[in-house]
């Protein structure tokens, strides 16, 4: 087991059974996320990335292998990680502050304390003046910031972010990446991040795991040594282009889904 790992995954496999047989989704995955690391998982659609996060979060148990959080490999993972899925999932009938406070309240914090914490984190995330607004009064980027604020507030020190910017336009996405990097660098949390966007994975991450098609295994691990902080202009540098080429080459080789594949559905 990797020392000081916040998340340590060894030999992870997952299969689902149905009336037509067994379908393998994940195979022999080894991954880790260290203290205050930003680690991304990059792979084709349907390869099992969200299944991986559901396992880490304790929502389902793997068919084989181990998942340890802070060195503990028992089944006490539920509630240990902040988990944000692809949609913001804000409750439309609750104010922004009430949405952000919800995770703390569910964990047993008094409502007054949870709302005070929510308003403080909203101020920090530039949403203080919108605390009493409702989600339909916010832009897409603001809704994602509110959802991330809720995730940070509910978490201890591990965040699982499953394509949180996937539905945003390119300009808003770049702004949200910069914002997330600033928030993460000012915190002590470790982030495990799913994306389909190669540029996003490289810009944000200390390490990128490139997965194959289902059943997913690790095609390559890219250690990203680009100096931080990483403004958006970093994507224009030769160093960034080299990492991007490596990632795309491995995705092409492992999936056959890019650049003139012979597959008719590519």
Q: How many H/I helices? A: 7
Helix/strand structural class? alpha/beta
Task: Write down the Rg.
Answer: 19 Å
Label the CATH architecture of the largest domain: 3-Layer(aba) Sandwich
Distance between the termini: 38 Å
**Which sequence of strands runs across the widest sheet?**
5-6-7-3-8-9
In percent, how helical is the residue content?
A: 25-40%
Q: Tell me, rounded to a whole number, the average pLDDT.
A: 88
Strand content: 15-25%
Low-pLDDT runs of 5+ residues are 257-266
Indicate the CATH class of the largest domain. Alpha Beta
Number of strands: 9
Order of helices and strands: EEEHEEHHHEHEHEEH
What's this, in brief?
With 266 residues, this protein is of the alpha/beta class.
Written description of the protein model:
- The protein has 7 helices and 9 strands; from the N terminus they run E-E-E-H-E-E-H-H-H-E-H-E-H-E-E-H.
- The strands form 2 sheets. The protein has a 6-stranded mixed beta sheet, sandwiched between helices.
- Strand 1 and strand 2 form a beta hairpin.
- It is globular, with a radius of gyration of 19 Å.
- The chain starts with a strand and ends in an 11-residue tail after the last helix.
- It has 2 domains: 1-81 and 158-179 and 186-266, Rossmann fold; 86-154, no CATH class.
- With 266 residues, the chain is α/β, with parallel strands linked by helices.
- It has helices spanning 49-56, 96-106, 111-124, 140-154, 170-185, 198-204, 238-255; strands at 5-18, 21-34, 38-42, 64-69, 82-84, 158-162, 190-195, 207-211, 218-223.
Short key terms for the protein model shown above:
single chain; 266 residues; alpha/beta; Rossmann fold; 2 domains; 6-stranded mixed sheet; 3-stranded antiparallel sheet; 7 helices; 9 strands; globular; disordered C terminus
